[in-house]
Design a protein that fits this description.
The structure is a single chain. The chain is α/β, with parallel strands linked by helices. The chain contains 14 helices and 17 strands. The strands form four sheets. Strands 3-4-5-6-7-8-9-11 form an eight-stranded parallel beta barrel, surrounded by five helices. The longest helix has 23 residues. It is elongated and about 80 Å long. Pfam families: GcpE, GcpE_C.
Length: about 425
């Protein structure tokens, strides 16, 4: 019979550390969260606003599309505007088809970017492919920039795939077409990395990714990559979809490989609702890493799901308000209250599990359920501290949370010491 210890995360896979504009990917560093804008990069105002929103929400690296001259010319201006706002966020240039030309024609863009992303499947075609790939790599060497070699099965190198399919057929079909495709994805990444190193780009400036849109394919491809190289790995389920489907698929796929020690940086690629909030994918990535115990981004709010004992919505509203306020205040609190990310708050709805869960939290409240005495005991550091009554229980508890944060993590803590 397995013990709980059997399910602890496996040790992180040893990978080469890559410095991306001051953010370290791999080499045992914490798993990095990144995102990507969906603005027209040539629209400087819109792109700066979205990069700033992503950065404030917790994206440690932000990728932007560089697809034409106008967007390449905008990159240094975007970088300058962000720095004036006090946001030294590494910007990654996403290049397809004509990246070699854009980098050559716009040296200020090449300098302003912290990393270049190359897709081996569309960096160039036929006899131009290796030349144009080499041009980008040589630019990266010239400006001392790292490169992500990002394979995507939607734009997979068809010559490589056809070659492997033909070989599989000649050997009597030992592998399924899906298995051959997975092998082609992995080989495309590894062969491209080898070529980059031959050109002169050191391994500590190379990140690999193998983007697929199905959970089992992601698990297979990254397991193969991890077994066959020590490059830093960027995780992501491409075209994950919208809403709960995209969240569940991304969490299931990346959660598995992270649990097995694989992955140095992640992106949750969610399709937003029309005019939806792009920062949602950053929040999901943070929550995935936090619930798995790999990073601590903000205090945890435990709240019961509700049942027939909790017909009032008070506990739901209180939990929602506290979680919203914690996230809203974290950019300031992270500086003002060092360690506040470790805070645990419980907002429970009835007497069944309420007192027990509240005792396990740093500060918790057990609200009265349907038919229970209208009183809400508050527990602080595992002990009952007081009981709240009346119509302002929610407001009073929120004030207690703020007071607890100040005393434990702020000046109150410093004075006590």
């Amino acid at each position: 019979m397995s013990s709980l210890a059997d399910f602890d995360p496996k040790p992180r896979r040893a990978s080469v550390a890559v410095d991306v504009g001051g953010v370290i990917i791999g080499g045992g560093a914490p798993v990095v969260v990144q995102s990507m804008t969906n603005t027209d990069t040539a629209d400087i105002d819109a792109t700066v606003a979205q990069v700033a929103a992503l950065f404030r929400s917790g994206s440690e690296i932000v990728r932007i599309t560089v697809d034409r001259d106008e967007s390449a010319a905008a990159v240094p201006k975007i970088r300058e505007r962000l720095l004036r706002l006090g946001m030294d966020v590494p910007l990654i240039g996403d290049f397809h088809y004509i990246g070699h030309k854009l980098l050559a024609d716009h040296p200020a863009c090449a300098e302003a970017l912290a990393k270049y992303r190359i897709n081996p499947g569309n960096v160039g075609f036929k006899d131009k492919k290796d030349k144009q790939f080499a041009d980008i790599v040589e630019t990266a060497i010239r400006y001392n920039k790292p490169v992500r070699i990002g394979v995507n099965w939607g734009s997979l190198d068809q010559e490589l795939l056809t070659s492997l399919m033909d070989k599989n057929q000649a050997e009597g079909f030992p592998l399924s077409a899906r298995e051959v495709t997975r092998e082609a994805i992995v080989q495309s990444a590894l062969l491209s990395a080898d070529l980059a190193e031959e050109i002169g780009l050191p391994r500590n400036r190379i990140v690999l990714s193998a983007k697929v849109s199905q959970v089992q394919d992601l698990i297979a491809c990254y397991s193969m990559l991890a077994a066959r190289s020590d490059h830093a790995l960027h995780l992501g389920l491409t075209e994950a979809g919208m809403g709960s489907k995209g969240i569940v698929a991304s969490s299931a796929a990346m959660g598995y490989v992270l649990q097995h020690g694989i992955g140095d940086t992640i992106r949750v690629s969610l399709t937003p609702e029309p005019n939806g909030d792009r920062t949602r994918e950053v929040i999901v990535a943070q929550e995935l890493l936090q619930v798995m115990g790999f990073r601590q981004f903000l205090p945890v709010v435990a709240a019961c799901p509700g049942c027939g004992r909790t017909t009032s919505t008070v506990f739901q509203e209180l939990a929602q308000n506290i979680e919203r306020d914690l996230r809203k205040n974290m950019p300031v609190w992270r500086e003002k209250y060092p360690g506040v990310e470790a805070l645990n708050v419980a907002v429970m709805g009835c007497i069944v599990n309420g007192p027990g869960e509240s005792k396990h939290a740093d500060i918790g409240i057990s609200l009265p359920g349907t038919g229970e005495t209208p009183a809400a005991p508050v527990f602080i550091d595992g002990k009952k501290a007081l009981t709240l009554r009346g119509p302002k229980i929610a407001e009073e508890f929120e004030a207690l949370v703020i007071d607890y944060i100040e005393k434990r993590f702020g000046q109150g803590q410093a004075a006590a010491e």
